[in-house]
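New to this. Help decode the following:
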Amino acid sequence: MAEENRIMSMPQTLGGHRRPFSALLAAHIVKKPRYESEAVLHEAAVKLISRHQNLSDLLLEASRTPSGPTENVGLAQQDVCLGSLTPPETGTWATPLSGPGGSLIVHALQRQAVELGVPVGEVSAKLVAEKLRGLMGCSEAHGRRLPLNSTQRAELSVLVQSAQELLSHRAFSPSAFCRELWKALENPLLEVVWHFHLGRILTVEYILESEEGAESWLVTELRSLCGGTTEEQGQKEDKEVQKQILTGVVSVLVRAAFQKPQDPGSAQRNISQQCCFVLDDMLSCVLDSLHKTQDQQAGTVIAECWVQVLDSMSCDVTMSDDVLGCFFTHSLTYILTYRPQFKVSHAIAMQSEWCFAKTSRLLTALYRKLSILLSMEKLLSHLQQVLETDEVNWQHVLSFLSTLLVYYPQAQRSLIELLSRLLSSAFEGYDLENMITSFLLARQGALEGPAVFPSYSEWFKMSFGSASGYHGNSKKSIVFLLKFLSDLVPFDPPQYLKVHILYPPYVPVKHRTLLQEYVSLAKTRLADLKVSVDGMGLYEDLSGAAAPVQCQAKQDVDKAVSLFESTGKISTAVMEASIFRRPYFLSRFLPVLLTPRALPAKPDIRMAFIESLRKAEKIPSALYSNYIQACQRERERHRPEERGVVEVSADRQPLERLQDELQDLRHLLLTPGAEEVSAQLARISEALTVLVPEGVDEPLRQTIMEFHVDPPTTSDLENKVINSVLVGFCQIFMDASKINPPNRQGPWASHFVAMLLGHKKLLMSLLHRLKDLLCNQGASLSAAHILGLAVFFVHLHQCRAICPLVLSDSTPCSEALAAALPCSTGADMSFCLRFCVAAVCYALCRSDSSPDRVHDYVPSSLCKKLLYLVSRLLPGTRTVLEGGGVQSADEGTQEEKEAGRGMWRNITDPLASWKSSVVALWRQPCFLALQTLPDYQLSFAEWVKAELRVQRSTDILSDPERQEYQQWVCQQQYLSVPLNQGGCAGDIRQACSHIFHAIMEFYTCTQTVQTTRCGPPEADSCLPDIVSRLQELVYELEMNRAFRRDEEDQRSFILDVISEKCSVTSESLAVSSELELQQTMHIWSRVVVALPPTVLLSVRSLGDKRRLDLRAFAEHINQRHRNVCVPAGRLPYDITAHFLKGVLTVSLRCDHPSQAVNKLLSRMHQQCPLLLVSVGVWWSRLCPVLLSLWTRLSGGPLPESLQRVADCCAWACSAVKGEVVPPPAVPALLLAACLHHAGKGQRKQCSTRRTLEQLGQLQEQHGLFPVFLLFFWVTDLLSTFLQLQKEDAEPAREHCMEILGYLCDTADWLLLFHPPGPEQGWYNTLAEVTTDGTTRLMPLAFYSLVPKLDTQVLGKMLKVPGFLLTALHSYSALTRLFLDGQTPLPDSSSEQADPLQILSQAKQFLLRTISLSPQTHFSENSSQLKDACGDLDPEVSSAVSSRLSQHDFSEEPDFL
């Protein structure tokens, strides 16, 4: 360099001319010094450097390669990418660089260090730090910290390499460099530090360990990298570098914090804690950014960046799963416990705001990233551990749970198990925290909907709604639960309080007051919130926020009408709401149901439902009258001639555009440019959107719809649009079929239907229009329309996955439409057959006759309709089934495909008849194979139901033809077919059961739905024909039974049918259930009397003898029929007469018929006392019928037992006239029944007491007779209470008072007013004579009669042992009846006492009885008296306790 300076400083020649280059070169060569050795040269260089010391620049020169700075930039970027390398250990530094430059710098630095008297490493460290300060000057201009540019990164890379070279020569001190770096740069850029970390010069861990404040610096730098990736702060290259640095630094921190060290020590633990603190601070920054409302964009950037870092770490193969799992678990714990600012009370009140839909998308993404390595069981177990050990942030806990439930289906099962553990632990140790946790978690799951987790009401009922719940093992558990629920009341949202009220936890009767206290508290809280329990819907889902009351009422009405349409009955929820939730029923439900509308000419299902409610007296007459008047005004307002046409004319151009687009689609399918079909369908969709725009609040997908009998009212424009769409589809398909068969037309039809399914607002009207065309206008449709609609229907079924479901039974709308196709008239059958044949033929051709694909196009209901109609309308097809049966088909052979195309040509040929098409289809192997699928088989039960709906007056078959067809079906088609194919497997009893079930169901539906029609509903149906078929089968069955002695074969199928139909037990108190049972039994009786009477009994073989078996029929009467008798205490005449006819007829199968009858009647008063009573009551009408029948059967007089019944009735008639006649030798129950019946039919000529006194000998022979007679009159009195018959109440009361006066000295009658039990002996028989409802009301009868007796009679009764105990039992039972609302309400026009008044009088009477009863009664029955008091009335209990503590003064009772 000195030589060059000397040359350049030489003066120029005179005149400005320079010397020639050769001369200069010669001079240079001549003057070039020569060195003797390399060492001398090296020493000269060192001296030169010493005179010109600029070591800072030399650091960049010494390591610069000939490739220049460009490659250094790439090297820097390559180093950055190595962020996942393991940090160096002590002493493992970089490899020395080759070349003389490095050694020159080292010598220079050593020389300078000697001169300064400091180590060379500190000199080099300070030199590098100063160079960095100069390098970073421009990055901190104007007080802003900017990222490095490409030039700076290249120089930084060279500087790092120089430091590596110095370190390799042991001329560089990392610790000194760390100190000098912090002196030179107060807060160095993390990118600079990261380069030195990658160069294994200065690691991040060392900086955290050695520098004070390094943690805060690192957090600040990391936040800067997370939030500094916006467009204004750098190019794409800068953002990528920053992300790589961020990921690398976080990876280093994670390893240092969570990797288990090989040699753990205090220093290592400190480093781990520091790295963990940095990561926690960063997570805090992320969480804070998500909750900021001032700068949402910046917060989103930080959170997104952190989620990307976690995602990159999950894919890092160098990171072990254990380390990553520990980091994710720690981060999850930190999030769940971060700033626990919400109390439990806040969480209960604000929980609905923390559901998944309202949680930040980035926060849910963060939850998912942290959960990816753990199983669901471990996640929830860790959540439970965090909840038990730390104070948590409830918002994060609950939103995390929602995220797990939404994204992971297995989370539901795991959460249910966790809740079970929490509740079990809570009730084992009465742990309040576990209770709170379980309720919060269950409610959070319910917020996400029933598809994710059961509703809160279902979970609450499942957990606490039965005796097997978590709380049902002790009183302490019950108190704990109710105390917990009470503590929640001030904070609970209304919907949860409603759940607790409407579905209360199970509490035993003796602890019911605790529950009542909570219910009262919850209702008070709801009243404070101005929320009514009565505002809840009948079918409300309480998993989330409650819907508006008016909207909920509309949903309830729609569902109630739908259930009525499907079942033919008023739903139980409606009946119970009309009684127990009357405010909601009257103020919400009925106003929505009775919304005025233009009533259709033909009553629809809604009108039938309203009429049924009116007949059940559930709609006030004034409200119903106003509704009818309002509907008439609506009809006047909506007359067709008054409708304007402005709307149609205003939208004429869009409608014409739609028609033009349909025509364009038609032309496209006729030309080779079929690839434009999708674009054209999009244009059609746009035209539909213009005509019928979707509302902004329309749901994204509608999954539930409801079909009404009459289509809903739509605008003229919508009707025109729907008609244009359907007509256009039919025309397009017919034109396309002229060119190609269905299997070569492409998917345009299915795409067309799928496009329509996307227009939700138009779809409902379109489907109702389609239903109206198929069900009401089928006979007027042309062949082209039938074929086009059939094709549309097939593709509608093909798209059933996105079609709406029908509300009644949640079936696809295609199945519902197929099931709704009418087959009741000849015209309907003809249309339905043509439609079904067209649809099935198209489906076969479309699927290339492949059995595996046909069911994707054909609804099962449609195939069943076809199977029903073909054999009915075409007798020639019956031989096919008789001869060959159903054959299997091979999959899609070429012959079958050709046959399918030929069948399609036959369908579209205008010259071919539809009958030939039916026959061709009927013989198609693929169609025969379709019938082998279980869902596509028409069972015998389904055939009977379809046949019952046929109207005989309009049937296409004549009466003889119909009889022949039905007999063929019953005897040949189904009787021998196996059960799995819908047949009866040769069992006549099975066939009879199917017919019996179908008849009863038909009666039920027609009596409910068709109540507005004139005449009986079955007048024009095929019911008589089906009953005739049933009679034929029963006669055949009875003929077989007459010659069989097997007891198993003697059972009657009709009793099995009624036992299956009647699911209501005697304990059921629901009014709707009792009404349903009455209707079922009435229908059953109507059918039974049409069958041979022998079906009611059987003959049982006992050794060599045969006798009549009454057990099955007696069980039926005692368990079911007894509870539907009106009036109570006697069977209807038709059932009684039919049974006795059967007894006389079946007795001929026994060896001695008369003896068999006598033995049967002798057992009757034990096995079925109600039947015996009914025989005595109806004997005046039964006698001529039975006498005539027995004369025809045997030619002799009636059996002795029946003759005794006749004598008993004659004796009763004489007795009521005052004549004294010895009674016959019959059971006392029969005597009392006959005398009671005779007394009701006569004017009162003599008192009952006088009659009993005249018949005093009965007291010796029949000691129970007066008690039985009292029972029948009491039953009559209670019947007047229930049926509000004022004119019959007084005679019954007078008879009861006289009999009580006669029995006042005895205790036998007291057992009538005790509940049935083993201690009552013969009096249990009476419980099987009357209904359960009457038995429950016996305490009401006791206090309606006894307090009104004469004082002398009452004085005698007080001396009778057991009277006081009976009075206490009756009062307790009467109080329970009143509390449960089971006492009959008096009519406003009657003089009957109110139950509350009777209860008040009963209490006064009982207190007076207690005070006047002899003391011996208290001493003898002290324990029973205490038990009888119960806990219903403290005053009564106090009075009894007071008497029990007194001495016996033997005072005489006095009622005066």
Remarks:
- The chain is about 65% helix and 0% strand.
- The chain has a mean pLDDT of 76.
